[in-house]
Amino acid sequence: xxxxxxxxxxxxxAKTGGLADVAGSLPxxxxxxxxxxxxxxxxxxxxDEIRQPxxxxxxxxxxxxxxxxxxxxxxxQLPDSPVEVLFLxxxxxxxxxxxYQEKGKDYPDNLERFAAFSRAVLEVPKIxxxxxxxxxxxxxxxxxxxxxxxAHLSDDxxxxxxxxxxxxxxxxxxxxxxxxxFPKLGLPPDYFAPAALEFYGKxxxxxxGLVFSGVLNxxxxxxxxxxxxxxxxxxxxxxxxxxxxxxxGIINGVDYxxxxxxxxxxxxxxxxxxxxxxxxxxxxxxxxxxxxxxxxVPLIGMITRLTAQKGMDxxxxxxxxxxxxxxxxVVLGSGEPEMEQKLKSAMRRYPEKLxxxxxxxxxLSHRIxxxxxxxxxxxxxxxxxxxxxxxxxxxxxxxVRKTGGLADTVIDATSSHLxxxxxxxxxFGPASAHALLTTVRLAMKLxxxxxxxxxxxxxxxxxxxxWDRSAKEYEKLYRLAVEKAAGPxxxxxx
Length: 494
Ligand code: ADP
Ligand code: GLC
Known about the structure:
Elements: E1 2-6, H1 18-23, H2 26-32, E2 36-42, E3 55-64, E4 67-77, E5 84-89, H3 91-94, E6 101-102, E7 105-106, H4 110-121, H5 124-128, E8 134-138, H6 139-142, H7 144-153, H8 157-160, E9 163-168, E10 176-178, E11 198-199, E12 202-204, H9 205-212, E13 215-218, H10 221-226, H11 230-233, H12 237-242, E14 247-249, H13 277-289, E15 299-306, H14 312-324, E16 328-335, H15 337-349, E17 354-358, H16 362-371, E18 374-377, H17 387-393, E19 397-401, H18 404-409, H19 415-420, E20 426-428, H20 433-448, H21 450-462, H22 467-486
Parallel strand pairs: 1-2, 1-8, 2-5, 8-9, 9-13, 13-14, 15-16, 15-18, 16-17, 18-19, 19-20
Antiparallel strand pairs: 3-4, 4-5, 6-7, 10-12, 11-12
The structure holds adenosine-5'-diphosphate and alpha-D-glucopyranose (GLC).
């Protein structure tokens, strides 16, 4: 199949979170299955020309609400992959350092930026003279593609039978804008209705994907169920409930070329499941780098956006208690300024136990995965989560909340799982500082029982979350999307 994969961030070109990891690795796994995938993303000012210069494929313009948006299309290869990445550049909209914001403030013209980008995505097949079977959009930034296809192109031959899949990576981010901005989208006025993009008087760009794509999925099975409830649905549970027969859950995979302690160039010493000596060396190096005493105490790592989604408020609430325990905690993250402040001031109070790095630092994120003994992810909700899977491969035992993809990927250290040798981490239920502390204490107790601990580390390191299986699941959804585009699904065909 020919697949046009649209995303607002793609690793290694631009990244703020897990979407970039997925968009930078799923297409390669699909290519391994024999599909032809082209990835399309905006050319931000911060996009480096990695290993090879970008080649121009010419320019074109899209017109929205009487305004012309001239784009240039650029191409290069995804590193170590047969997949082609296409960049759409428009200096006025994307020639800036940030992807969505600067200094913690969203760009005020984000609606216009991602609407114009989404509309431009639909011109790519024409410019490239390439006819995709499937269009795959991700999150609110590329969701308008589906509204434009319906409103502007549904009678156009190349688009009439285009299969359409939309992936929700995080329902907490919906691309909400004041209703007064709707006209800028250049969509028919009746698209500003509850059955389309209107959401309590606002424009909700995510809804364009939820309503107008043929098939939907989220990035874990548990999250695909959770979002149909008011607790996780962020007001969209009704829309999702109505589309439940088209809504699937596929767990993300891990790019084990990027995330593998056996050949990770950022580590002082590589290691693997058969030889864990290197992990000790990485641990000491991390303690040194983070100005913590080199000690045999459990070292807990966190790499995260500092937001309530990630349960960072629970960590901050539990911090004084945590610091009473004989452990060390390394946090790498950025996000809400108040959380950044609280963490920095706690670091001044506990310099021997807590190290906080505010910022985005990919090499350090690898060194934390390798050097820590435990990895903490107390997320309030987590559509999939990647760091717990990276931790498993790095022999870093995850402590997670039982939600979304965390619940689907970590096997709790209950006595029966420990006995069977299947336990890979610690899973707790309530979103409370108390539950977090209780679980950390339990983990510390097990940390001292070296036989059980190594067994658990090894079980985690042997777990396989490579993309191959999930890519096959995406393949099934693409087929379904194409069938739907061809006409009503016949009984027994899905
Ligand atoms: P989300 O996309 O919700 O932030 P995920 O667990 O899916 O969460 O993915 C987060 C990705 O971003 C991981 O690759 C993680 O290592 C990376 N990451 C998050 N914060 C930082 C940071 N401050 N520095 C470096 N990498 C980070
Ligand atoms: C989102 C989610 C995260 C998921 C990532 C990639 O950012 O918050 O859980 O792993 O997308 O799908």
